Write the C-alpha cells for this entry.
Amino acid sequence: MELQALIFDVDGTLADTERDGHRVAFNAAFAEAGLDYWHWSVELYGQLLAITGGKERIRHFIETCQPPLPAEEDLTALIARLHQAKTRHYTALLAQGGIPLRPGVKRLLQEARAAGIRLAIATTTTPENVTALLERALPESLSWFEVIAAGDIVPAKKPAPDIYCYTLERMGLDPQECLAFEDSENGLRSARQAGVPTVVTVNDYTRDQDFSGAALVLDHLGEPDLPFQVLAGRAGSHSYFSLELARQVHAQAIHSEVEN
Ligand code: XBP
Ligand code: MG
C-alpha cells in the first residue's frame, strides 16, 4: 500500500510543550484557585505524564498524592474548573511566548503538502491548545491538516486506539496507508493498536520508555544541518527525516507486518 497520509501527535511531537507549557499552566491554575500545596515539579510531572489528558491527570494526582482539597466542592466540578483555568493559562502562555516546533517538523509538513500527501492530527490535548500552538508557530499550517482530532472527541484517550480510529474514519483511509508520528509509549501504543506504522521522536520525558513496535525511533526529525540520531530501526544513509525516508520507513513497516 502506498503512503497517503502523515498523522501527527501534538504534545512532545510537534513541539516540546509539556515541561515548560502544560506543567506551568497546571501550576498557574492551582495557584489561582488558592491550592497552595499543589505544585507539580518537573520530576513529579514526568510521573504524572503516564496518564494522558489533563483532567484525567488531575484526578490521578488527587487519588494518588491525596493533596488537601477545597471543602464542599464536587470532585468532577473542581477538576473541570481547574482544567478550564489551565487551558486559559496554557493558551495565553503560547500566545505570549510561543513554543517552537521541534526540528524538522515544519520542513516535513511543507514537503508532504507539496507532494500531495494528506495531513492530520491525532492528539489527547484540548482543541484550543492545538490552535494556539500552531497559530503562533506556523499559522498557515492550520488549514493544511484536513482532520484535527483532539481532546474529548473520543471518550478513551491514548493509549487507547480510538483517536487514531476516529482520524482514519474521517479521512477514509486504511491504517496501512498512513504513517504516525509520536513521542511517547502511550502515543505509540495508541497508533499501533489502530494498525498505523509509527515513527517515534523521543524527548527528555520519554527517552527511556518502551518503543518496541515502532518503525523507527529518533531523537528528533533532524534538519540538513542538524542530523538525527537513530535510536532504533533503520534510516539507511539519511541524516534527516524527508518524505523519501517516510516512504521508505512506511514500506519497510508494511513489509515486515506481512512477514510476521
Ligand atoms: C498529551 C497529553 C495532554 C497534555 C494536556 O498526550 O497528555 O494531556 O499533557 O492536555 P499526547 P489537556 O501527546 O499523547 O496526545 O490538559 O488539554 O488535556
Ligand atoms: Mg505526545
User: Anything to note?
Assistant: The mean pLDDT is 96.
